[in-house]
């Protein structure tokens, strides 16, 4: 397990860890003052700040579930259709979207 010395981030995947450390090394690194997550640019930090608000203004037209960002709504919308499942190359577990697969890879492999 790789543990970041600058924030609570940890992973089992060395490439993910190196990429994460690069965020801390950036000259323009912008830390979130709420969760300490670090972003390479002020615009990425600004987009992240939406996740700390309770405003959910993006609504699914199929089930009326509400989301904070257009990206999370878009990912959710895909769950209403039968797309080909994404398969983990390490354990053969399947996922309906890339975000779920990436989260699985970071936490399990």
TrEMBL record:
Chief location: nucleus
Transmembrane segment boundaries: none
Keywords: Metal-binding, Nucleus, Repeat, Zinc, Zinc-finger
A GO CC annotation given for this chain: nucleus
Top-level taxon in the UniProt lineage: Eukaryota
Subcellular location: Nucleus
Alphabetical list of InterPro entries matching this protein: Snail/Krueppel_Znf, Znf_C2H2_jaz, Znf_C2H2_sf, Znf_C2H2_type
Ranges for domain C2H2-type: 30-57, 58-85, 86-109
SMART domains to which the protein is assigned, alphabetical: ZnF_C2H2 (SM00355)
GO MF, one example: DNA-binding transcription factor activity, RNA polymerase II-specific
Family according to the record: Belongs to the snail C2H2-type zinc-finger protein family.
Record protein name field: C2H2-type domain-containing protein
Source species of the chain: Caerostris darwini
Organism ancestry: Eukaryota, Metazoa, Ecdysozoa, Arthropoda, Chelicerata
């Amino acid at each position: 397990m790789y543990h970041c010395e600058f924030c609570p981030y940890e992973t089992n995947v060395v490439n993910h860890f190196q990429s994460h450390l690069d965020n801390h090394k950036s000259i323009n690194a912008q830390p979130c003052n709420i969760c300490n997550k670090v972003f390479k640019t002020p615009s990425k930090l600004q987009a992240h700040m939406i996740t700390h608000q309770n405003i959910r203004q993006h609504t699914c037209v199929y089930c009326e579930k509400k989301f904070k960002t257009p990206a999370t709504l878009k990912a959710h919308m895909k769950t209403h259709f039968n797309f080909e499942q994404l398969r983990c190359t390490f354990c053969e577990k399947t996922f309906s979207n890339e975000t779920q697969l990436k989260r699985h890879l970071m936490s399990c492999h």
